Amino acid sequence: MTVLPFSAVLPEDASDGPEDSPLRSVSTAVAVLDCFTAEPELGATKVAARLGIAKSTACRMLAALAAGGLLEKAGSGRYRLGLRLFEYGQLAVDRLLLREVAMPFLGELRETVRETVQLGVAVGTDVLYLERLETAGAGLRFRTDYHRNPAHSSSIGRVLAASDPSLTAAILERGLERRTPFTVVDPLRWRRTLVQTREQGYATCRDEYDQGWSSIAAPILTGVTGRRRAVAAVSVVGATSRMLGPRKPAVVQGVRRAADRITVALERASS
Fold this sequence. Notes:
Blueprint lengths: L21 H14 L6 E2 H8 L3 H13 L3 E5 L2 E4 L1 H31 L2 E8 L2 E8 L14 E3 L4 H8 L2 H10 L12 H14 L2 E4 L6 E10 L6 E11 H4 L4 H23 L1
């Protein structure tokens, strides 16, 4: 892989800024990591020469990347790629596999319920939507920021937190922001919704992120029996009257069946 000059990896609006600007620092970090595609171990002198930056800047960046686990010290002032990069890469591969495996079942679910269907995972204390299949005529169109939402006010986030105590703790530590008059912001009440989710095998959110819109989600599980946890979830979202009215049993059945089928297919694909 060819390592570009440092200026070539900078955004246009960052190249004229101060050396320690946030954008410039991020660009420097990316350029430093790229250096290791050519050689397994490097020191500050070589990195500085390759990128055309001061050796002191290279030293600071190498130390910062090592502190974050992206690099590790190899001795004699040299560094090599760290295990955290492997973890990130494996996570990316897993999520790509998840999306690939889930797509046929998401499509079938959309055709069955005739509502918008989503596939989401936890990122920090948010839900990141890996896929969203909308239905023409359902009356719902998502804004760009809907690709990532706070987990506490989504049914997918509730499903994921119900099987992950560390995610639950992180969400509560961040705080339960009120989005609508119906958002659950009391920690004790929110914890009770997680208990209910575990007991019934699915989660609902009624008007909690956008008033008038509600969702139902079910978990995609991994692990051995008795120690299974949700690694992702499927949800159906639509007008509250359609989600939680007379059609609710059919929507619940559909979303749970899709999540179960994705769970089985993912286990087969991963074996």
